[in-house]
Amino acid sequence: MATIGEQASIYTEQHRMTYYECDRTGRATLATLINIAILASQDQSDALGLTTEFVQSHGVGWVVTQYSMAITRMPRLNETVTLAVRGSAYNPYFAFREFWIRDAEGQELAYITSIWVTMSQTTRKIVKIDPALVTPYHSEAVKRIPRLPRPLSFETTDETLSKPYQVRFFDIDPNRHVNNAHYFDWLLDTLPADFLLAHDLQQVDVRYENEVKYGHTVTAAANILPTAEDGSVTTSHQIRVGDEKCCDVTIKWQSTTID
Amino acid sequence: MATIGEQASIYTEQHRMTYYECDRTGRATLATLINIAILASQDQSDALGLTTEFVQSHGVGWVVTQYSMAITRMPRLNETVTLAVRGSAYNPYFAFREFWIRDAEGQELAYITSIWVTMSQTTRKIVKIDPALVTPYHSEAVKRIPRLPRPLSFETTDETLSKPYQVRFFDIDPNRHVNNAHYFDWLLDTLPADFLLAHDLQQVDVRYENEVKYGHTVTAAANILPTAEDGSVTTSHQIRVGDEKCCDVTIKWQSTTID
Predict the structure, then answer these.
(1) How many CB atoms within 10 Å of residue A24?
(2) Where is the Acyl-ACP thioesterase N-terminal hotdog domain (chains A, B) (predicted)?
(3) Can you spell out the DSSP letters for A69-109?
């Protein structure tokens, strides 16, 4: 990935982590990490005239299909971080966007890659990307975009942890879809509090399959896999509505460095 | 209330409303309104050396018991608002704090009054307010603090709307308590989406009784009262854990001015 997207414009902004964006340990939540990354990309899009209205006037909307997040350290309460984003590359059907979150000294806290598609507002099917929606980012037109890691195939066992979550009115954001950052609150809340307090996020791979809608009750299921030799732990997650798979997520954790 | 607290220091800061703080109509959520108000008061406290650690070193923590909010207009997506707060007055057991949220032209969007107590960390009982915790705000020592409106006494009827909500790990904030702004997501989510889309908040009166804890499943119940002659609607709400009342809320709404 070193060379792809080097010509793309990078947009940066600062963000201060508020108490309501952090968990009880004072670390930003995973939902917050995605929220602030997407905030920066929306601000870049708006600055380039690629507003939601402009995209909709082309009969489509952007939908994320995959995230891959490498987390060095979660932002902390009251820390001001720098968000950077670029629309790195695209091919006829997929766009590749990268995000960096850095501390005040420029140290990388998280690096997020993502794959996006344009979906027709009328047919709800994926359509070819209109170059008018990506060229202002100075996105590179490529034949192949990078492949992101695929989450583990989720397998339900006797030890699978599972909880139901009702999708709430306030889970819908101004784009009129369920903000999929909320998925992370559901996914992680399924894990025991003791586990969440004892581990730091290291790597998160997400693949979205079907949209969750207001009024749905989703099932968030999780498996905690055996601890690896290096002490890291992997958890495997799935969100379903009935029998329909909405997203698969694999997370790698390490023992926490925060007390 | 005109004269009380005039000597108290006012702290102000700006806040830009992000998409993840707004609902599908592009209005800030009620939870967000409280979150940003409290953010300003925490920043004032920190600036005056009245940090959470300092308060805890006196063996207590601040707990809000009542809010009364008069809302002219909810902040909107991408709007930068000015938050102002002052610790206006206190008597031996109660402190009175006021918040103002204003638009870029200085027009008032919301005015929030609140009553706070200090609770012993060991006995969990309300204790006399230590003047060291309030004098830096230039709070006025008074005999009586203003009384805030009491929410309607909640009555369950055949038409009462009700939903269960599990308290999640990420509902706990860095102060290690359930952020009670989440109560508003539960309370309002109980109302039909059609109602929420058709009405604007005008007045919200809240009284907290008992703390909600991680792992609890709360019941949020709501009554929509008959429409008044002026077209306003009042809703009455309660949050319970089992038979224990956690908070009562009364909300006055008007027909929405947003499409």
Answers:
(1) 20
(2) 10-137
(3) EEESS--BTT-EEEEEEEEEEE-SS-EEEEEEEE-TT--EE
Q: Measured between beta carbons, which residues in chain A are less than 8 angstroms from residue B26?
A: 174
Task: Look at residue A143 and tell me whether its pLDDT is greater than 60.
Answer: yes
- Residues B84 and B160 reside in one and the same domain: no
Q: Is A224 helix (H, G, I), strand (E, B) or coil?
A: strand
Distance of CA A173 to the CA centre of its chain: 15
Residue A183 to residue A247: CA distance in whole angstroms: 9
On average, the pLDDT of chain B sits at 95
Q: Where are the beta strands (DSSP E) in B72-183?
A: 80-90, 95-102, 108-120, 126-127, 140-141, 161-166
* Total count of domains within chain B: 2
CATH number at residue B171: 3.10.129.10
Structure tokens belonging to residue A25: 């340990």
Please give the single-letter amino acid code of residue B108: E
Token pair listed for A158: 């006797």
B26 and B101 housed in the same domain = yes
Between chains, do B24 and A189 touch, taking CB under 8 Å as contact? no
Residue where a domain stops, chosen among B83, B118, B148: B148
Which chain A residue has its CA at the smallest distance from B177's CA? A24
From chain A, the residues in CB contact with B214 under 8 A are 193
Same domain, B7 and B132: yes
Contacts A20 to B, Cβ<8 Å: 35, 38-39, 173, 179, 181
ipTM exceeding 0.90? yes
Judged by CB atoms closer than 8 Å, whether chains meet at B174 and A23 is answered as yes
**pLDDT per residue as tens digits for the range A60-117:** 999 999 999 999 999 999 999 999 999 999 999 999 999 999 999 999 999 999 999 9
Domain, as residue range, for A242: 149-259
